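Reopening: structure tokens for the uridine-5'-diphosphate complex, inputs below.
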Amino acid sequence: MAAKFKRVLLKLSGESLMGDNAFGLDPKVLAQYAAEIKSIVAEGVEVAIVIGGGNIYRGMNEADTGIERAQGDYMGMLATVINGMAIQSAMEKAGVYTRLQSAIKMESVAEPYIRRRAMRHLEKGRVVIFGAGTGNPYFTTDTAGSLRAIEIKAEVILKGTRVDGIYTADPEKDPTATKYEQISYQECISKNLKVMDMTAFTLCMENNLPIIVFDMNTPGNLKKVVMGEQVGTLVSK
Ligand code: UDP
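Re-run output (same inputs, fresh job):
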């Protein structure tokens, strides 16, 4: 059976890389994610990755850090490059060819972000990791994921999380909450379901980019998603 998607953008949160730690990186999680990604590359899927930075630094709370918002946001973007280097390293250990491109120039560790070059890498079967978010403060890595996915013409954004999809209510608070298999952008907005921040979400909606929210921590799930099995929640028109 052929994969359902030819090109995907996988969005991973920084926090997922902590595993059971309170901070930083868990080598077990990195190795597991690398193996999951390798399994879809083996199916011929072209994979781009945007990774968050929340496990190292989140810039948004000036009140707690005393660091002004824009400055903190740049620090958060640098954190995503550290995570990108970590996942790159884990994937290369697993035998997957990768390139890291950064929206903030740091030529000793990453290529600068060049859209056409990224697409060329993908065509050659390399996994492309996009670091430093959008390169702009006041944005999130979800927005970077949506933006890059649209730019490189990915068919779908795969949002790997710790929950297995979008629910009618918070399943941890409401035992009657049920999971959507499929939902429209409009319904997410009218029901006030938080899939991504509004900037990221509207970018997907306006460009008709489907989002699949799924549990990245269940081994084999990523492959099921790209093979078209019913996993998680699909958000589309
Ligand atoms: N960030 C930013 N612009 C971007 C992407 C990220 O300023 O385009 C900063 C922002 O401060 C954010 C931090 O980088 O809090 C880490 O990213 P995010 O919180 O999205 O990571 P995640 O929650 O996925 O770990």
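The beta strands are 7-12, 46-51, 98-102, 111-112, 127-131, 156-161, 182-184, 211-215, 233-236. The first strand starts at residue 7 and ends at 12. Marking as resolved unless the reporter disagrees.
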